[in-house]
Amino acid sequence: MSRPREEILGEESGEDCHVIDLMGFSDEILLHILSYVPSTDLILNVKRTCRKLATLCLDKSLTHTVVLHKDYQVSKDKVKQLLKEIGKEILQLNMAGCYWLPSSTIDNVLRCKNLVKLNLSGCHLTSLRLSKMLSVLQNLRSLAIDVNPGFDASQLSSECKATLSRVLELKQTLYTPSYGVVPCCTSLEKLLLYFEILDRSREGFILSGQLMVGESNVPHYQNLRVFYARLAPGYVNQEVVRLYLAVLSDRTPENLHVFLISAPGSFAETGATKNLLDSMARNVCLDALQLPKSWLNGFSLLQHVKFNSPFYFSFSRCTLSGSYLVQKVINGGKDLKSLTSLNLSGCIHCLAPDSFFRKAEDDIDSSILESLVVSCCNLRHLNLSAAHHHSSENLGKHLCQLLARLKHLLSLALPVCSITGGAANADKPPMQSVTNMLPQGFGKKARVGVQTYPRSVEQGHAKPQSSVFWTLLESLLLLESLELVGSNFSSAMPRNEPAIRNSLPACSRAQHVGDAEVAAISQLTYLRNLTLAQLPNILTGSGLIRIGAQCQHLRTLSLANLGMMGKVVYLPAFMDMLKYCKHLRDLRLEQPYFSANAQFFQALSHCSSLQRLCIISRNGTLQSDAVMSFMASCLEVIMCHMFTGESLTACKNLQQSIVRRPKLRWEGWDPSEGDAVQAE
Question: Which residues fall within 8 angstroms of residue 379, CB to CB, at 6 or more apart?
C-alpha cells in the first residue's frame, strides 16, 4: 500500500521544521531534473506516480529524443511498451549497441513514423527487416546500421529506396565486403564508414575484398561534405575501402570539407588514391584532414591542399618535421584559431627542426612548440604521445610550461618522459627509487622491504618544488581526459596493432616520474578518463589514493605496467583508491604477475557503478570464489574479461558458475581466448 506524500517527505515536528516538496518546484526545474532519467524509467515508472509528472514526462523536450544506448537494463518488453506509448512523438532514436535485444524488437520501430534520426548500430538487422522499416519512415534523414554477411541490397523495396534517397547522414559498419545501402543514398552529405571485415571466415577460409553479387551500383558522392573511414587491421578492409575511394577519385565533390581515413599499420597508396589526393588539392578547401601515414610521408599533398577554417588535424605516426609543421601546416600562425583538435601521436620529429640526423632522446625545439601553442590557442584536444619529447633547461620553455597556456584543453595525451625536468635533472638518480637496484624484466627478483604510503588523503604528497607537471595541471583544471603513456609502451593485447611479447624498456627520463607526479593528477576535479602506462618508478602508489578521493567524476580508469614488472608493489594503495571510486564504470588493468585475490575483489566491490572490467596479467592468478562474490555485489557489471595464467579447466568452471547465476544473460565465450567472461 502506498503512503501519503507527506509521510514520505517527512512530518513536521515543530514550527521551525520545513518540508521541501519536490512538486513545489517550477516546471522548468522539474523538466531539467527529469532530463537525467532514462527514457524507459521516465515513461514506464515516473509517469505513473502523479498527474503532474505524467504531464511533464510527455513534454516534447523529453520525448523527442530517446537514447537506449548503454541502457543495459532495458528489455524487449520495455522497448515495446515504450515505443507503444510515445512512438509517434519520437524524432531521434538511438539503440546503438543494444546487441542483447532480439531482432524482432526492431519491428517496434515502425511505430515511430516521424523519426528523423535512427541509430541501429550493433543491432540484429536483416535486409528484409530494414526494407520493411524504412518503407514507413519517410521523414528519416540520418541512419546508422550494420551490414552483416547475407545482406542483399536487391531485397530493398522501392519505398525503402525512396526513403534512403532522402537520407543526408549515414553511418555504416561493414562486416562483409559490400556497398551496403550507400548507392541508394543519392543525397548523402555525411558518410561514416567502419570496416570490421575479417580476413578469414569462422571456418578458416580466406576472404576476398570483392563485393558480393548484386553490388554493381556505385555510391553517389556529388553532395558529400564529410567522408570518414575507420579500418580495422586486415588487407580485406583496405581492398574494400579502395572501392569506395575509387568513385571519389573520378569526381571529387566540390563541397567536401572533411576527409578522414584512420588505418592501422601500412596502407599503401595506389594510382586511384593519388589521383584522389591530387584532385582534392586542386578542387576542395578542407576543414579537417586525416590520412594514413604512408600517404602523408611524401608531404606533396600538404604543400598544395587548401584549408578554410580547419578544426581537426591528425598526422599520427607520420615523419612530419617541426619546421614543416610550422611553415606548411600551421602557416606561420595564420588562420589556426579555429583548430580544436590536433593529433601528433607517434610523430617523433614533430617538435624538432628537421628529421635528419636526430636521435629520439634529443631535446625538442621549444620555439616550434611555442609557435604551435600561440597559433592554436583554442585547442580542446591534443595528442603528443608515442614519442620522446624531452625538454631542455631553458627557463620557461619546458613542454609543460608551454602547454599550460592552452587554457581550453579538455583532453591531453603525453609521453611519460615529457613531464620530467630538463636534462640536468634527468641525469640525477630518481628520488626514493629502488628500481635501479633491482633487475629489470621477469628474471629472479631481489627481496625488497614493504613500502609504506600515506593512509589518508591529508598525508599525501605536497607539491614538489619546481615541478613543471604540477604547474601544468594547475592551469588545466577543466581537463576531462588525461593519458600518460611510456614512449616505448606496447600493450600485450592491442586493438589495432600486432602484439609484441617483449616490450622495450622505459625511457630513462621516465624513471623520474613517480608517486608525486601521479598525485598531481588529483588537482583535476572534472577528470573523467585516466590512462597511466609504463611508469617504472611507481613505488607505493600513494598518488592513486588522492586521485580516487578528489576526482569524483572519474568514469574510466586504465592502468598498465606500473612500478616493478615482477611485483605489484602499488596494489595496497590501489585497493584503497577503489574505495573512493563510487562512479567508476570502466576499469582496465594490465600488469604481469597480478594476483586477483579476495582482497582485491573486495575492494573492487566498492565500485558500485562498475560496468566493464578487464584484467590482463601474464603469469597472473585469480580466485574464482572472489570473482563470484564480486559479481554478486556489483550488479551493474555487464562485461568481465580476465586473461591470466590460470588453467583452461579453471576458466571453464568459473564461466559455468557465473552462467548458472539467475537473472543474468551471458554471451558465448571462446575458451581459447583465455579467462574471458562476457556478461550481458
Answer: 339, 340, 341, 342, 406, 408, 409
Q: Using CA atoms, how far apart are residues 325 and 636, in angstroms rounded to an integer?
A: 46
CA distance 522 to 160: 53
Contacts of 92 (CB under 8 A, 6+ apart): 64, 65, 66, 115, 116, 117, 118
DSSP, collapsed to helix, strand or coil, labels residue 449 as coil
What's the confidence (pLDDT) of residue 502? 56
* Residue 297 and residue 158 share a domain: yes
> Are the C-beta atoms of residues 257 and 283 closer than 8 Å to each other?
no
Show Cβ contacts of residue 460 under 8 Å, excluding neighbours closer than 6 positions.
Answer: 454, 519, 522, 542, 543, 545, 546
Contact (Cβ atoms closer than 8 angstroms) between residue 340 and residue 380: yes
Is pLDDT of 9 > 90? Answer: no
Three-class secondary structure assignment of 34-49: HCCCCHHHHHHCHHHC
Provide the pLDDT for residue 13. 45
Secondary structure string (H, E, C) spanning 109-157: HHHCCCCCEEECCCCCCCHHHHHHHHCCCCCCCEEEEEECCCCCHHHCC
Nearest to 211 by CA among 265, 151, 270: 151
Same domain, 524 and 575: yes
304 pLDDT band (50/70/90 cuts)?
A: confident
Name the residue with cell 518540508: 19
Annotate 392-403 with DSSP letters as a single string: -S-TT-SHHHHH
**What whole-number distance in Å separates Cα of residue 420 and Cα of residue 430?**
11
Closest CA to 373 of 388, 346, 351, 353: 351
Amino acid letter, residue 70: K
Same domain, 118 and 141: no
Cell digits for 184?
541508394
Residue 325 included in any domain: no
C-alpha cell at 58: 510527455
Cell readout for 16 is 521551525
Give residue-wise pLDDT tens across range 637-650: 988 999 998 888 88
CA 559 – CA 574 distance, rounded (Å): 10
**The three cell numbers locating residue 402:** 608551454
Average pLDDT over residues 552-576: 93
> First CA to last CA across the chain, in angstroms?
34
The reported pLDDT for the residue numbered 432 is: 44
* Nine-digit cell string for 112: 515511430
CB of 188 closer than 8 Å to CB of 167: yes
CA–CA gap between residue 202 and residue 402 (Å, rounded) = 51
Q: How far is the C-alpha of 488 from the C-alpha of 509, rounded, in Å?
A: 12
Antiparallel, parallel or unpaired: β 169-174 and 142-147: parallel
CB neighbours of 531 closer than 8 A, spacing ≥ 6? 413, 482, 483, 484, 485, 558, 559, 560
Q: What is the pLDDT of residue 207?
A: 74
Q: What is the CATH number of the domain that holds 566?
A: 3.80.10.10
Cα–Cα distance, 28 to 48 (Å, whole number): 20
Q: Identify any residues that bridge with 676 across adjacent strands, giving them in sequence order.
A: 641
pTM, two decimal places: 0.86
Range of the domain at 639: 514-660
Average pLDDT over residues 588-603: 95
Per DSSP, the three-state class of 486 is coil
Distance CA 580, CA 620 (A): 25
Query: In angstroms, how far apart are the furthest CA atoms of the chain?
Result: 85
State the total domains in the chain. Answer: 3
d(CA 179, CA 189): 16
Looking at the fold, whether 137 and 56 belong to one and the same domain comes out as no
Pick from 61-70, 88-97, 459-468, 522-531: least confident = 459-468
